[in-house]
Amino acid sequence: MSKKMDALDYHSIGRKGKIEVISTKPCQTAADLSLAYSPGVAEPCLAIQQNPEDAYKYTAKGNLVAVVSNGTAVLGLGNLGALAGKPVMEGKGILFKRFADIDVFDIELDTENPDEIIKACQLLEPTFGGINLEDIKAPECFYIEETLKKTMNIPVFHDDQHGTAIISSAALLNALHLVDKKIEDIRIVVNGAGAAANSCAKLAIALGVKPNNMIMCDTKGVIYKGRVEGMNPYKELFAADTHFRTLEEAADGADVLFGLSVKGAFTPEMVASMAPNPVIFAMANPDPEITPEAALAVRSDVMIATGRSDYPNQVNNVLGFPFIFRGALDVRATCINEEMKLAAVKALAKLAREECPDSVCKAYGNQKFVFGPNYIIPKPFDPRVLLHVAPAIAQAAMDSGVARQPIEDMAKYIEHLEKTQGKSKEIMRMIINKAKSDPKKIVFPEGENEKILRAAKELVEEGIARPVLIGDRTKILQKMAELAIELDVPIIDPADSELTEKYAAELYQVRQRKGLTLSESQRILRRKSRTHFGSMMVRMGDADALLGGIDTHYPETIRPALEVVGKQQGLSSVHGLYMMVSRKDVYFLADTTVTIDPTAEELAETAILAAEKVRMLDLEPRVAMLSFSNFGSVKHPQALKVRRAVEIVKERAPELIVEGEMQADTAVVPELLEGFTFSKLKTNANILIFPDLNSGNICYKLLHHLGGAEAIGPILMGMNKPVHVLQRGDSVDDIVKMAAIAVVDVQNI
Ligand SMILES: NC(=O)C1=CN([C@@H]2O[C@H](COP(=O)(O)OP(=O)(O)OC[C@H]3O[C@@H](n4cnc5c(N)ncnc54)[C@H](OP(=O)(O)O)[C@@H]3O)[C@@H](O)[C@H]2O)C=CC1
Ligand SMILES: CC(=O)C(=O)O
Ligand SMILES: [Mg+2]
Prior knowledge:
By secondary structure, the chain is of the alpha/beta class. It is 45% helix and 13% strand. It folds into 4 domains: 3-24 and 60-154, Rossmann fold (3-Layer(aba) Sandwich); 162-412, Rossmann fold (3-Layer(aba) Sandwich), CATH 3.40.50; 432-564, Rossmann fold; 575-717, Rossmann fold (3-Layer(aba) Sandwich). It contains 31 helices and 21 strands. Helix 5 (86-100) crosses helix 14, helix 15 runs antiparallel to helix 17 (384-399) and helix 19 packs across helix 31 (732-747). The longest helix has 21 residues, at 159-179. The two termini are 58 Å apart. Pyruvic acid (PYR) is lined by residues 75, 135, 159-160, 285, 307, 316-317. Pyruvic acid is lined by residues 75, 135, 159-160, 285, 307, 316-317.
């Protein structure tokens, strides 16, 4: 199917367009109705009448932005009119929502009269917390924005001007750093003299570009002093004292070329004529002034960015407006001022230079993003952008005195932002904070593995754990050098470690009656199995926990761990627990990895251990013992086994909220539980104990792959000391999370 058809289908299939309104309060019963509407609704109305600020408390105003357009400059497609611009405005709406959880009404105004737009926005002030002007052409956009800023008390921001300026400036700073040119020395040509070009040029000058080193062009060519045709006061500001008259002439020898005009405006000849290591930002949408392929075909030293998501270096205001408004709304800023814009520039430029997490690489098909010519600006799907830009904006608003509701605790605010990114972040942040409060020594038997090294770096930098790496020292150091990882952690090479003899003697003690000789024990520890060595470190107290299995099959890690660390006394088995995290909820599923056909005793053990783990994470355990039968509805041995397990749990842990046997939907849908008035479980369970490994293992994989839940685990329960098995496909993030869980495990021994 063609890309055109794909795009049309995307917009037309199912509910038409891209947005809908959903309610945040229940409206199912007559009682709900009397609160949502008359008579209850009168109360907030009267409160707001008394105190207008209460609108932020009782209505959606504080999180609601109007995306206002008249469609006179829709992307680079020109004046398509208000109605035809609507898909772009709905698009901005879903980006606001997706990236910053801001709600948007798109407002398309069928007028080219600036005063009518101004009036409409002013009249809308009671409805919205902010106004994002979009795709309104120059020069009218300048008058409209300036007037609204002066007359309105909520932030008004013309995205095409300032959003674009912020992103292009951040990318410019990074590009110049990479080509080793000073901003005050560069000669820059800006093609386009409209909304975006004007603001990008101004911000570049504020950052250090010399006005005399800038030339701006429009459809008539270079804007020079004395030019009369096609001029306006906004262009006049950039009129250059130059003999150049065409873009071709101006581009000759230039260091930087900004395109804020139309598709195809730059030619290969222009690219060829630029200075060494030229930087080209071809920002016209949907098609750039020149494609990266065409520019790179001319010369290999060119660094190029476009406004599109399907090329490297997307310099596009999507990286700005959601996060900028988030920060501004959260401090109830009265405007978005220069200080706030510069703060966003700095935050974005800095973030691109930091290591990019695996989760972002995954979101982009496992591409690697390392600060360099093909990665000069963060990716929109990088969740860190929200966490860096919104606080920077909020802080700058407070510092510059435009915040009506300052944030008292910035660290808490950042945690709150993380929460908005989903339950997974909230829970993991809580686990990571716990780990950081008392980091423990985690041994990694696969110390030569790249992901382990990168995870170790993160664990040290974040203060989550104290990693110990096992492996060939030379290889580990070589790999670190290749990856440019500087890491000061213990590296233990079993081949020459003084611990090996001691551990061999201990292993021999433990396994001599299972046919192990001392010399075999020495061979295993010195050469054969680093998992044995790591497990021995945990057994002997030289490390607190072990994390292994990234390079091996599950039994190759679990077997040595069981032999050396062993399961807790009195337990029949060890058990595997998965934490399944969706955007809204977290569920713990067990046993997912160890016992194929557990007895009632073993099921009870799984339930009690899972509850302990969940308590350890400061959550209240609510256990459902799952079956195909609901409280005795089927008298099959499989159902009776689960029923017996419930009895055992109730005997052994009478304080625990546990119920069953029950079907899975009864466990997770509170309304279905209501029929069983005798049930101790009154709301949805958060621990689901499966009757066998078949169901547990199948369920967690389906939830992960079809249901989109994040699967964190397996968290191994019932070992003498914490050992957790990594999965072969685990990312660096997964390893860091498991390490944090292991640390919290140790803290709770
Ligand atoms: N990547 C991004 O994030 C963003 C990219 N843009 C892109 O920037 C472009 C301009 O948008 P915007 O400023 O909002 O629109 P405006 O209508 O305000 O400005 C358009 C400008 O482009 C000039 N122009 C048109 N064709 C040419 C040409 N062939 N050569 C030189 N100049 C030309 C016009 O010149 P004249 O004054 O003579 O008519 C005008 O100055 C669009 O392509 C848009 O997609 C905009 C915002 C964000
Ligand atoms: C990205 C954008 O806002 C534009 O091209 O107009
Ligand atoms: Mg736009």
